[in-house]
# Entry
Amino acid sequence: MNRNQKIKLYLFLFLFSTAIIFAIMFPRLTLPFGFAYIIYLMARPFTLKLTIGSKKQRIGYFFLMFIGIAFLFFPVFATLYNVDTDFSQLSNQLPEVERILNEKFFAFKVKVFEKYGVRLNMDPVKFIVSKLETQGTIFLSHMPDYLSSLFEWMLLVPMFLYFFFMESQKFSRRFLEAVPNPIFEKSYVLFSQFNTKFGEYIIAKFIEATILGTIVTLGLFLIGFPYPFILGFVAGVTNILPYIGPVIGFVPAFFIALLSKDPNVSMLAMVVVFTIANLIDMILVFPLLVSKIVNLHPIVVVVSIIIGSQLAGIVGMIVIIPFIAFFKLLFREIYKDLSVNI
Amino acid sequence: MSYEKEMMEKAGRGEIPNDRLEIPLLKYLWDSSPLSFLTSKESHHDFFKKISVLSSFSDNEVRLFTKFLHRREFQPNEIIFKQGDSGYGFYFIYNGSVNIYANHNPQSTEQGDFIIRIEKRQYFGEMGLLEEFNRRSATIVAAEPTVLLGIFKPDLDRMLELYPVLGAKFLRETALIMANRMGQLTREIVTLKKKVKELENQV
# Structure
C-alpha cells in the first residue's frame, strides 16, 4: 500500500468511527433510525422488485408502506382492545391478590414458628407491593416524556423509512464508492450478509412470536383460563427472546393459576397449553424459520441476551443475536485470512 | 429480447407506456445511438457490447446488467487482490491493464512469478463469484491507472432474484468462461506431458 492509499484507508476508518460515536451520543436520533432500518430490512424482500423493476416506484412504496403498517398494527390494536379489558380486570383484582398472598405468607410464618420456633419478621408481600407502587409512580411521572418520545418516533420513523425506500440504493452506492480498495470486497460482502441475516432474523422472530402468541391465546381461551389475550400477548412478545423468553412468558399464567380460587382454572390444562405451544415452536416453527439464520451455541445465545439487556434493555436483548451471528462471521473471515497469511 | 421489441410487444398488447421521463433510459438510448462514436468516452453499454462472452445479451439486458456493477479505480502497482485472499467478485477491465503473478509468498513483499498481463475488455476472478469458499489462485496488480467493473456475490444473488433470466444468462456465460479456461488448461497439461516425455526419452 502506498502513502496515498494508507491516508485514504485511515481517513475512511476515522470517519466511520466518528459516525459510530455520533450514533452512540445521540440515541434520540439513532434509535428511531435503527427501528426504521429494521422495518426496511423486513420489507426489503417485498420491495426489491419495486426498487429497480417498477416504473411507479413512489406509488408502489406508499402502497407497500400502507399495507405494511396496516398489517403490523391492525392485529396489535385489535389485540390491545382485549388486552386493555384483561388488564383493567387484572388491576381490579390486585388488592385481592395482595390479600391472598398475605394470607398464604402468614400461614407459612405460623408453620415455621410451630415447627422450628423461629419468628419470621420480614414482610416480602409489603415490600413487593411498595416496590410496585414506587415503580408505578415513577412510570406515571415520566409519562409526558414517553408521550413526547412516542410523537417524535411517529414523525421520525416514517421519514427515515421513506429515505430508506427511496434513497438507500443510491446512498449505499455512494458509500461503497468511498470504501478504500483493500477492504472493499470483504466489507461489501459482509455488510450484505449482515443486512440479509438481520432482516431475515427479525421477520422470522416476528412470525414465530405471532404463531406462539396465537396458539397460547386460543388454547387458554378454549380451556376457559382467565385473561387469555394478555397472557397470549405476553407469551408471544417474550418468545422473541430465545431460551429465556418462554419461561418469562409462562410466569404470569403460573401465578394466576396458583392464586386463583376459581375451580374452573386448572393449572394442569394451562401447563399443557404452554407445553403444546412451545413444542410446536421448538419442533416446527423454530427449525423451519430461525435456526438456519442464526447458527449459535445455546450458551453463546444466553450470554449474548444478558449482555444485550445490560447494553440496551429489551431492544438490546432482541437485536444482539443477529449482531453476534455477524461478529461470528466476521471473526471467522479474519481468522481464515490470518491462517492463510501466516 | 431487445428493448425495442419489448416496447413494440407492449404497444401491441395495448399497454400504455409510462409517461414519466426516464433519465437512465435516455442515457442508454444516447449511449447506444449510432453517433455515439463521436464522443470520446466509451460508455459501460458500449464496453459490454464489445465483450465476446456477453454477446448473447440483448441491448436491454446489457443496460440492466450494468446496474449491478461497481466501478473501482486502481493506481499503478496497487494490489487488486492477493493469492490466498477470500474471493467474492468477478472483474472486467474497463480501462488500463493488470499483471497476474503466481507463487506469491505472504511473508515477503515480492509479488511472485509474473505470469501474464491482461488488458482492456478482458476479465478475471470468475471463480470468486461461483465458489462458496473461494481462495484467489493468483495475485493481481494494476500495471497502470486502471478502472475495473466488478460484480460480487450479493449482486449476483440480487440479479437472480430480480431478473432471473438475466441472472441465468450471466451464470451460463460465466460457466462458459470457466469451461474455456479448463479446456485451455487441459491443452497445456497435454503439451507439458508431451514435453516431459520427450525430455525423458532424451535422457
About this structure: The interface with chain B takes residues 1-2, 4-5, 48-49, 52-53, 55-56, 176-177, 181-182, 184-186, 188-189, 192-193, 196, 333, 336-337, 340-342 of chain A (CB under 8 Å). Residues 57-116 of chain A form the longest helix (60 residues).
